[in-house]
Amino acid sequence: MSSDKNVQKKEPVKIREKKLANGNVHLFLDIYYNGKRTREFLKLYLIPEKTPADKEQNRQTYNLAVSIRSKRQLELSRTEYDLPKPYAEETPFLSFYRSMCEERHKTPDSDGNWGNWHSCLKYLEIYADEKTTFKDINKEWVLGFKDFLNTVEKDSHKVTHKKDKSVFQGLSQNSKLSYFNKLRCCINKAFEDGVIQFNPMRGVEGFKQEEVERVYLTVEEIKSLTATPCMYPWLKRAFLFSCLTGLRKSDIEKLLWSEVQDFDGFTRIVFRQKKTKAQEYLDINEQAVQYMGERGKPTDRVFSSFKYSAWTILELKKWAFTAGITKNITFHTGRHTFATMMLSLGADIYTVSKLLGHKELATTQIYAKVLDKRKQEAVSLIPNLEEK
Questions:
Q1: Distance of CA 118 to the CA centre of its chain
Q2: C-alpha span between 15 and 127 (Å, rounded)
Q3: Structure confidence by residue, pLDDT tens digits, 98-108
């Protein structure tokens, strides 16, 4: 057997490079197994190194390719020798996490989710380093990251994250919850893929979600908004539509006429939630139908002019203020308004949960907590203590 064949036997998977016309280099795997050679293009690219940032990006990209190559070699070894599933604890942790980030970046309608994953990465890069492997990650390491989130300064990964260095501003409770859950998801994935034998996340409690005030409008306030002109009619229609249907801004923004259907005397919206990806069937009343306007082509957006932004929030507040409403409202206030209005009008909590598209009844019960008539009835029982 030649020396070249010996090398192929030891290293059946190699990283190769293909120069592209635009100057980038496409990385691919050259796989030699059972006398056959195949190529696996990784969709990973090295760019011309003009700045230190370019060099750092190429280093991270190549590390990711190395991680994928190691995984392929382990898969071939299992097949060839019929070995039990091995563990790849030497896999670089940050490279593994970055690959999960990229998967979410490529998924349609998941920009917000990718943003959270990417934000968490910035703090993981401070806590860990490129040499950290899954072999280094145990329960103490996980608890250390939890403590780190409790003490790290917000935007500390930025070079100049604030002007006043004397004032400490930590992460919000919900940011800590989100970032720790991203780590949990990553480690669970590594456990499922056989990278690690034991899951260090088991038995580790995460952060509790911070309760925030749910600002909602009363029926009288909705009537006041309805009677008050808005500088942008499309904003008025979209917000009042949310108050009458409970739809999120993201679902109103993407709503198509093909999703608006007639069903048993009702107008029904058949759509997939952008946030949860759940399929929904929502019947709406005639008032809500009027705010959609004249029906367009199936592929047309119902609220074609509506685009949510910081500017939209400002205009919404201006309109509300003109209507005499001083509450700190956002577009999501429309969803809160729908939920509390349904409960106050006597709809049962299970039905309201289905109308909102909640997966868990506990999520809807938060609105029942906000609007608890039994508490009002209870405090009304207190007699007038000033009577003689």
A1: 10
A2: 29
A3: 999 888 877 64
* Residue appearing with tokens 């957006």: 301
- Residue 343 CA: distances (Å) to CA of 137, 212, 246, 369: 47, 19, 13, 11
Secondary structure (3-state) at 38: strand
Half-sphere exposure of 105 (CA within 13 A, CB side): 10
| CATH 1.10.443.10 segments of the chain | 219-376
In terms of DSSP bridges, do strands 36-46 and 260-263 run parallel, antiparallel, or are they unpaired?
unpaired
Tell me whether residue 105 is exposed, middle or buried, using C-beta atoms within 10 angstroms of its C-beta: 0 to 12, 13 to 18, 19 or more.
middle
The confidence band for 283, taking pLDDT boundaries of 50, 70 and 90, is very high
Please tell me the CATH code under which domain 219-376 is placed: 1.10.443.10
Helix axes 219-227, 233-245, angle to 10 degrees: 160
Under a CB-based contact definition with an 8 Å cutoff, are residues 148 and 157 in contact? no
Cα–Cα–Cα angle for 255, 211, 366, rounded to 5 degrees: 65
pLDDT tens for 129-139 read 999 999 999 99
Output b/e per residue, 346-368; b: 16+ Cβ within 10 A: eeeeeebbebbbbeeeeebeebb
Distance CA 314, CA 225 (A): 15
Strands 260-263 vs 266-272: parallel, antiparallel or unpaired: antiparallel
For residue 266, the cross-strand partners are 263
Q: What is the pLDDT of residues 175-185, one digit of tens each?
A: 899 999 999 99
The pLDDT of 9-24, averaged and rounded, is: 83
Amino acid at the residue 82: D
pLDDT at residue 7 is higher than 90: no
